[in-house]
C-alpha cells in the first residue's frame, strides 16, 4: 500500500518540476495514459463505517443527533458546525403522509432545508441483482448524482440531516434508509445525521424553533460523489453473500464475499409474527386480492404476498418496536438498545447481517446496530420480500406459480438449510411471477454492486448524470495551471 502511494507521489512530483512550458498534452499521468483512479480509491469495511454513539445522545456530532445539537447548528452554523466540516448544513424534513406545517429556520446562505414527500422516488430504485429484481433498494449512481444536483449538495464538504417531519414509523424508517443510501454511495459518516424525534413534536416541546411558512432556497451548486474516492458498497449484503455464509462456504456461487473471520450473526428486524412464520404476516388488506391474474415479475409494488413466511436460518429477532418510543418515535437510550442486542446472543467479534421485510424497514434496525451501537453490520436490502419469494410451490390449476420451479435451483430458499418456521401463503395471494430456468441456475447475484463500483470509478457511462457525474470533456485540463 505504501509503495503504491509513493509511486503516485513520485509521478506527480516529476510532473510538477518538469511541466513548465510543456504543452498540455504532455501532462502526466495523462500523457502516459495512467489511470490513477484505482489507486486513489479506498474500499471501507463495515467496521470502519460504523458509528459508536455517546451514551448521552446530546454529545453526538453526527449519526444520531438530538434537538439541542440540531438547534445549535441552525442558530449559528458557521461557529457551531462540527470540527472538520466546512460546507453547508442541508436539512431534509421527511414527509411520507402529509406535513406538519412547521419548517426549520434556515438562512439560505449556509443553511438550507427541504420538506420532501417523495423520498421513495428520489433515493430508491427498482433494480435487478441478477436473480430477482426488487423495488426499494439503493438507487443507481445517476439518481444519486441527480439528488445532489437538485438540492445543491457538495458531498465533499456539506453536512446532511434527515429529520422526520411528524412522528411516524414511515418517516423514521425513510430517514434511516436515506442515511443508509448516502453512506452506501460514499458520503462520509462524519457528515451524516438523523434527528432523534420529529420536527412537529420538538417544536411543540419548545426545543426547536420553527416557522409556519416556507420559502425555497438553493445553493445552486453540486459536487460529484466520484471525487471522494470512497467505496462503501460493502454495506450491501447480497443474497449470494447470505446463502454462501449460511452454507459455510459450500456453494458454487460466484463473486461472493468471504465469510467473516470472526463469524457472523443474522438479525431479523421484523415483528415477531413475521419472525415466527405467521401466514400472511407481511401483508394485509384489499390490495392483495386478484393475485392469480396479476403478472408482476419484478415485484414493483408488493401487491401480493411472498411465496412463504418464515425466517432465514439461524437468525435471531430484534423487534423494531422495541427500539423506539411508540409515541415520539425517538430511539430508546443507548443502554436499552445495547441490552436488546445482547438479548439476541450477540458476540462482539461477529459481523452482523440485518434484514427486514424490505430495505427501508430493515434500515431502521441496521441504523441502530451500525450507527448507534457501532457494530460491524451489513444490510440485506432484498429482505424477506426477496428471500421469501424464492420458494418452490406446485400450484393447483389456475393458481399462481412460484418464482422457483426447479427443485435444485441455486436460489431456492424454502429448504431446511436456508430457512425455518416456514408457512406457505395461499396460492391465490401469491403474484404470478416465475423466473426463467436459466436465472434459477445463474451463479452471480452481485450485479448491483458491480454496477455501482463501476460508476464510482468512472468505468461505466450508463449511470452518469448531471451534477458533475460523467467523464470530463475537452482534453482534461493542464495541471501546470495553463
TrEMBL record:
Biased composition regions of type Gly residues, renumbered to the chain: 464-482
Chain coiled-coil ranges: none
Domain of life (superkingdom): Bacteria
Region entry Disordered, spans: 449-482
Domain Rhodanese: start-end pairs: 309-396
PROSITE patterns listed in its UniProt record: RHODANESE_3
Record-given protein name: Rhodanese
Organism whose genome encodes this protein: Leptospira bandrabouensis
